[in-house]
């Protein structure tokens, strides 16, 4: 991936939180680096195998609002309350800060229900409804997508519609996709920037100017959810060897 500067505080230090960190590998790497970079790493998990890890529920962090430059989820959105984890990261990250997510590709459904990869499906023709319905069902099966990826039959940079749904869900929480790297066979890396601020109506998101340079305020609220967001991430699939 292209090297880009980290968001930092005025003192030149970047405060990074590693959520669901396991043994705190990132903190170990940073503290052991010479010369030591200007990065403060705070590691959180449900268990603390060493002094670098703080015991905490990553859906309820002991941190102030807007106190963090970068939040990292490395294969950490495993709980059914993963949306709460994302919302908590959005709370503690500063405006203009970032949320980095590394996730297994097979967790994203290949398409949304009733939608082909090239866009929304059309109404089935008379007498062909059952066949169309079967095709949609097959397309949304994450196990099929997993097998395709294992056999190398998938364009690694191709987006699954389920991944798009994931990006949209985070946008409703004030996190806008900044970059994506899908070059790995198994994993996708997503970098989000916090561009929304919490308000009574939900998250206020500053949209990009239109073709005339006009900007209007926009709000993302919970009422905008068109899908069952909890089902966007599928259970992890493992290949038996």
UniProtKB/TrEMBL annotation:
InterPro entries: RRP8, SAM-dependent_MTases_sf
Region (Disordered) residue spans: 111-143
Subcellular localization(s) per the UniProt record: Nucleus, Nucleolus
EC number from the UniProt entry: 2.1.1.-
SUPFAM superfamilies assigned to the protein according to its UniProt record, in alphabetical order: S-adenosyl-L-methionine-dependent methyltransferases (SSF53335)
Catalytic class of the enzyme: transferase
GO molecular function: rRNA (adenine) methyltransferase activity
Basic and acidic residues bias spans: 114-126
Gene3D superfamilies: Vaccinia Virus protein VP39
Pfam families: Methyltransf_8
Keyword set, alphabetical order: Methyltransferase, Nucleus, rRNA processing, S-adenosyl-L-methionine, Transferase
GO CC annotations on file: nucleolus
GO BP: ribosomal large subunit biogenesis
Similarity remark: Belongs to the methyltransferase superfamily. RRP8 family.
Function statement: S-adenosyl-L-methionine-dependent methyltransferase that specifically methylates the N(1) position of adenine in helix 25.1 in 25S rRNA. Required both for ribosomal 40S and 60S subunits biogenesis. Required for efficient pre-rRNA cleavage at site A2.
Protein name as it appears in the record: Ribosomal RNA-processing protein 8
Taxonomic source organism: Dactylellina haptotyla (strain CBS 200.50)
């Amino acid at each position: 991936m292209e090297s880009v500067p980290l968001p930092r505080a005025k003192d030149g230090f970047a405060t990074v939180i590693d959520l669901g960190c396991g043994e705190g590998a990132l903190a170990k790497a940073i503290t052991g680096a010479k010369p030591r970079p200007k990065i403060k790493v705070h590691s959180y998990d449900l268990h603390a195998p060493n002094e670098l890890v703080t015991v905490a529920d990553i859906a309820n962090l002991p941190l102030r609002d807007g106190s963090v430059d970068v939040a990292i989820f490395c294969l950490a959105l495993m709980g059914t309350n993963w949306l709460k984890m994302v919302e908590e990261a959005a709370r503690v990250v500063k405006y203009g800060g970032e949320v980095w997510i590394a996730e297994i590709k097979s967790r994203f459904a290949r398409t949304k229900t009733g939608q082909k990869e090239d866009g929304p499906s059309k109404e089935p023709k008379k007498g062909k409804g059952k066949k169309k319905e079967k095709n949609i069902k097959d397309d949304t099966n994450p196990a099929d997508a997993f097998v395709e990826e294992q056999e190398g039959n998938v364009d690694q940079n191709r987006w699954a519609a389920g991944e798009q749904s994931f990006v949209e869900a985070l946008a409703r929480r004030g996190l806008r996709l900044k970059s994506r790297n899908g070059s790995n066979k198994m994993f996708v890396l997503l970098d989000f920037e916090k561009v929304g601020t919490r308000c009574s109506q939900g998250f206020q998101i500053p949209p990009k100017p239109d073709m005339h340079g006009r900007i209007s305020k926009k709000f993302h609220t919970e009422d905008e959810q068109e899908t069952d967001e909890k089902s966007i991430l599928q259970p992890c699939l493992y290949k038996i060897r």
